[in-house]
Design a protein that fits this description.
The chain has 358 residues and is an alpha+beta fold. The protein folds into 2 domains: 145 residues, Periplasmic binding protein-like II (D-Maltodextrin-Binding Protein, domain 2), CATH 3.40.190.10; 196 residues, Periplasmic binding protein-like II (D-Maltodextrin-Binding Protein, domain 2), CATH 3.40.190. It contains 17 helices and 9 strands. The protein is globular and about 60 Å long.
Length: 358
């Protein structure tokens, strides 16, 4: 038997792996942990526990860079059992009712948001709790073909960072004030249960909101807007499963992973019981798409063109703390300039702290 303990979405993002790896045999985790997991040897590499045929199938059937996201130093530390990334969400019935089409660019998104608010129509919203402000920043950067956290000194050029934060602030101004502590699930709950929201341009998609009867109203998902280079750069999320060094029988735990990640389970039980599969075979399955308002077919290309964030040791600390600093600017508690200086300083300090593991 396998006994599962459930964590919150926030705990999934930032609960210390040093604690979890001592308590559990198997952990479902967020791929930015990979650098630390490998550096501190929290998990067994799966290369010696799963067959080459199984791993090759997982690689061939990756949704976007999901499979790659669990590899560090040439070793595989997790199997992608859940694939996700930034996509857009809309209420097609409300768009049709008001004769509106979804915007194709970020400029159009901002203009539509202002127009909807002025006419007291259902609004455009963002997911604006700190970690999701950070995720949106990363998506907007990648959508412009910028590459954050690569030069060891600044997250981006200060002008680019400021422009991205200022855009988030401008767009947030035309959404609901309650969105300032919303995660993607909060956004989708509001969108699917009321008529207050009609569009979110970029958030992590959840296929169950596209299943008839899950909520009062169906939500349809699609591509994110473009900054001029196409519908690219949506930050990749999802979840992988790995085996900790605390596990006394890793070969048995590997059998559990084999089943959870298998093509058959992924396209059947995994989704019907509320999961969002990580195997590409499920995403192209006609029956699964019919059941989910074409969620998988409509977002697959967006994820294939998605952005894989850095995963080096210490990066979880960087994304958590940078999100908190960015949120101070978005919430009007500090200036954009101070926030940009703050995230750059945080980046440098964390790299220095983790220098022995880089």
């Amino acid at each position: 038997d396998v006994n599962w303990d459930v964590r919150t979405l926030q705990e999934f993002a930032d609960q210390p792996m040093s604690e979890l790896s001592k308590k559990y045999d198997l952990i479902v985790f967020d791929h930015p942990w990979i650098g630390e997991i490998a550096a501190k040897e929290y998990f067994y590499p799966l290369d010696d526990l799963l067959s080459k045929e199984y791993i090759d199938d997982q690689a061939r059937n990756s949704v976007g860079p999901s499979h790659k996201s669990y590899i560090w130093g040439g070793k595989l530390y997790g199997i992608q059992i859940d694939a996700a990334g930034h996509v857009s969400a809309k209420r097609p019935d409300l768009l049709a009712k008001h004769g509106l089409a979804i915007p194709e660019t970020w400029r159009e998104t901002l203009a539509l948001a202002e127009d909807l608010q002025s006419k007291r129509l259902p609004l455009i919203t963002l997911s604006l709790d700190p970690v999701n402000i950070w995720c949106l920043y990363m998506t907007l950067a990648a959508n412009k073909k910028l590459d954050p956290y690569t030069n060891g000194q600044t997250v981006l050029d200060s002008k680019d960072s400021a422009e991205i934060l200022e855009f988030i602030i401008a767009l947030a101004k035309f959404g609901p004030s309650s969105a300032f502590d919303w995660n993607p699930i909060n956004v989708l709950d509001e969108m699917s249960s009321t008529n207050n929201l009609l569009y979110c341009p970029s958030l992590f998609g959840y296929s169950n909101y596209s299943v008839a009867g899950f909520r009062d109203h169906l939500v349809e998902f699609g591509h994110i807007p473009s900054a001029g280079f196409g519908h690219i750069g949506g930050i990749i999320g999802g979840a992988g499963i790995g085996i900790t060094k605390s596990c006394k029988h890793p070969e048995v735990a590997a059998k559990v992973i084999e089943v959870l990640g298998s093509p058959t389970i992924q396209r059947t039980l995994y989704q019907t019981l509320g999961g969002q599969p990580g195997h590409r075979g499920a995403w192209v399955d006609k029956e699964l798409n019919a059941r989910t308002f074409n969620f998988f077919a409509n977002t697959l290309q967006n994820l294939d063109n998605g952005y894989l964030r850095p995963r080096f040791p210490g990066f979880i600390e960087i994304q958590t703390n940078c999100g908190d600093i960015m949120a101070e600017a978005v919430y009007g508690k500090t200036s954009v300039a101070k926030a940009v200086d703050g995230i750059d300083a945080m980046y440098r300090a964390t790299l220095k702290k983790w220098a022995d593991f880089q």
